[in-house]
Amino acid sequence: MSGPARVLRAASRLRGRNNEGFVAATMALVVVLVGGIDSRFWSLATVFNVLHDSFEPLVFSLGFLMVLLTGGIDVSFDAIGIFAGYTLSLSAGRPWLASHVLPAFVAAAAIGLGLGVVNAAATAILRLPVLIVTLGTRGIIAGVLLSAVGSTYVSVLPGALGAFPGRDLIRVQAGGGQSVGLHVLVIPLVLLCLGLAFFLRQTVLGRGIYAVGGDLEAARRVGFPVRWIQGFVLCLAGTFAGLAGMIHVSLIGYGNPFDLVGLELNVIAAVVLGGASIFGGRGSVVGTILGVLFVSLINYSLILLGIPSTWQQVAIGILLVLGILAQTVSRRRARSFLATGGASA
Amino acid sequence: MMAGFGRLSGWMRGERSPRQLFIAAAAVFLVFSAASSRTFPSVANLQSMGFQFPEMGLLGLGVMLSMVTGGIDLSMVAIADLAGLTAAEFFHPMAGGAPPGGSWSQVVVGVTVALAVGAGCGAVNGLLIGGLRIPPILATLATSELFGGLAIAWTGGQAIVGLPQRFLEIGNASPAGVPVPVVLFAVAAAATAVLLNWRRLGLLMTLVGANPVAAQFSGIRALSVLVGTYVASGLLAALAGVIIIARTASATPDYGQSYILLSVVIAVLAGVDPNGGFGTVTGVVLATLCLVMIQAGFIGLGFSQFLYEIAQGGILIAVLSFQAARQGRRQEPQRRRGPAPAPPRSEAV
Lengths: 345, 349
Known about the structure:
Chain A is mainly α and 345 residues long. In chain A, 71% of the residues lie in helices and 3% in strands. Chain A has 15 helices and 2 strands.
């Protein structure tokens, strides 16, 4: 094996199974470049801000990833999220919610789970693709929220929820006398990511999720309960969406039933940037975390560099084109390598 | 032989014809006409629907074309916004203060510029999908962000107002009682039908969508077919963008985000096969009509706008599960008799 080939092989190992290394390297490049232009960038404040911006999209993305791994595309998660978050913002004054935020998150997760069960049942009974079922249920969920639950803006969240945005673990001084905190949510979210990664890699059900997305018929013949797995991921995605909606409402400090609409494409973009295949069977928790952090990092860098926020979407669009291109090309190369028996790469 | 016969008799029974949709549209019309007999079948209400439905229908037609080739175009709304904004920017320096009338030639040039932008954006999509072989859903997701982002960045997120009066007539005039958008839509729908059914490109699109591998081995160059497809859907999107800015008298860079999924709903409701190979213009027209009539009917009855969203979701699921049930019944006996059915294709669109 010649020198360049060895370098290539080492590089491909670093790149990770789903291009995670590629995203990480690009992130490092962005950090170096932006920091070179403005050294304020290299600070804890940046880390805290990027993390803070990533909480809500991360939880949505992880839920979306679960369904995507089985080969389904769930577009109802934003409707489920705002349904759960807004419903709880309406009842934030109730005594059982006033003293602690935990009941609110549990209740939001329960609402999300309930709506996820609806998605799962509809998919199982109607035997239609997830995309089509959730296109329908998202309209129904949003409609029920606005016509039956409420359509007015809740501007103040009382009690523990109202104080939640300021619950920081530590605070550091940033430029201009402002301080930036690391929000307490980072702990449960790290645990959630670790738990989910373990679940996907080490449990039979987790492997089943990949199996269903990789090859439905093969998974069925191996003996995976395909329909149950397809339903299970929708329930899980609903639960995650409920949690994410609650994170959105509690961090932003108000309840607006019209929020989050049109978020679908951004979440899909982050998950895809993180290396997940849109056809299922490929993707990882690490990749999704990187994808979400990457999008937040770009947005934050643009703000810091004084580039008008209106250019954010262009930047994300270009990144998405490049990221998808890199994936498509590298995957095709891998495939042709296999096809020729490894004789020529 | 048996399969061929089954398919023929299925076609004769109207298995894939939009007959059900036609019945559904007629039923919707009759129900709302009965419920509010004074207002719903009135000329004024029909005209008002006539101003609403062309933009939705045009987006639906574009998604249908992309689905026929086995793809999907999620970037149509972004293209519509960008094309509309380009036309508005073209008119803007001429306006220079007081809203002038503008001449017909200016209007023609402005609309042509918008269509050119639409064709250009569509060509980018086609090259990404056909040339670099990126999955259509990903390519158009990315270009949707890109084109939409360009529109927002161009104006700093501001809307452009002050369009020439003669241009606004495209979206607001109704000579002889027929709204201009309806005329434009009819022309576009007819052109799409001709393209799909009577032109070489249309046949190639269907072949590529029905079986990409067979198409490749038959010597069909997928690149030119796909570029043609997405240029066509880009043109339809640009026309929708022109109608939108003329109707609302302003160009908003992020207008109609909810139209993205709505256009998919229309195409699916129209009986277009998301896996490629089948789609009809009639189906898209009828599906759009159904949705617009229900929306107008709900407003007429004083129902909330939100109930309409529920109805829209419910209709989609109901119609599709009905179709699936019929298809399932048709396939059951074959499955027992013939060889094992082909493994289901990816459910991701």
